[in-house]
Model the fold of this input.
Amino acid sequence: MNIVTAEEMYDMDHEAIHEIGIDGKLLMENAGRAMSGRIEASVNKSDCIRIFAGSGNNGGDGFVIARTLLNNGYHASVVQVVPNEKVSGDALFHKNLFVKCGGDVRVTRQISEIEVIVRNTDVIVDAMLGIGTKGVLREPLNEIVTTMNQAAAHIISIDIPSGLPANEGVQDFQAVQANETVVAGIPKMSAFLESTALYYGEWDTVSFGLPAKVTANYKQRCVWTVDSFRQSMPERKRHAHKGHHGRGLVIGGNAEMPGSIAMAADAALRTGAGLITAATTKGAVPAVSSHCMEATYLTLGDTDGYLNYDISIPFDDYDTVLLGMGMGRRRETGKLVQQAVEQAKCPLIVDADGLYHLKPLLDKLKHLTNPVVLTPHPGEMAMLLDIPVQKLLQSPFSFTKMFAEKHQVYVILKGMFTIITTPEGRQTVNSTGNQGLAKGGSGDVLSGITLAMVLQQQPLSEALCNACFVHGKAADLLIEESHSVYDLMASDVIAGITNVYRTCMAIQ
Done:
């Protein structure tokens, strides 16, 4: 499943209509019928259904939906919130069809009338505005949206809730708060932003006949699903041994935070790494070893329980290096990160405090021949970019793409919608996970899973996507079967990795 901007969606429609030759009325008919089929699953024949239609393609889809519902025996009528002269082209064609089929269209923009209408409506189908909305709504649409949001009716938006921006980077908007959204063809970027996603409610896509030749040109962003995981996850060979599944090194931890590196090492082994070595302070080793007996250990020097730079780490002995969690922010600790950047010739994954120490070294990264993976949460990403967190969250796709391309690194931007970005600017959104992961230690577990995935025989970009998928899916299955979003712990997620493989890959 791809993700598009408003401009990309317009380009696809234009190509389908003007270059391939598909009649726009046919695309509108296809979209409306497909959306109507999805709406019928959420309504009853006894419901009073009102389709609020505007003037553009979104309104045209609304007229097709109204006609289809009416023909299928539902109580459906249209409230047209624009003057008659505003409805033209394909939308007017489908309005006339609806009327000729016995449909009722009430044209009104009077708030007093609309208040009465919504009070006596069971289901509102929002087909007023599409993906071209820009800026704050003007009267009377702003009042209509407010009235809808205050209504008791169930709201189903068409393609996108009216008033909601399709793209990132928009602060000021007023939008319909939908219970459900039926998306036409391809989800828009705002469905994956913390500030706008909730307006969609539950959403799903329907196909309306865009040719594969057209959609194939718009794969800059996609969603990583269970099918993606199944198709890309490498099969374990029957006669493989531990060396075939990689030797990983985890550097981090201190006397006060031994749990972070312990969880990372444990998660890596649970995910499938062949051999894991935990490099930490002498004081942290007992705590880590009691939690993860299968790992081996490399004792590093420390000052007051914090890692320092006084030992040469044999990076050549490992296939991938993970560092940062629990290492602290002391200056002497930062030399370990510098050493890893300068000496490691294998993939390097940097998380947590390692990102703080990496910031002065960013200009060196694009000159490295080995890949570098950064796993920041929004606060850490904002620190690397020198921007406020809120600014990052308004445009996470753009900022991470710019950063990844500039420094030639892979970025896993963690959050409600985790975005994986490659040095070429290709972006993938993970489809799994829930609010139970919003707890200390979750990031350490993800880093360990990422280490294990990078060690497997799969392309690096797919490894990162599969790591995020497994992390989130483990949490989802735990919430479904035995836990709540309140009590879920990072250590529970490690144990839940087993269920992901058994459930999603049919491994017994």
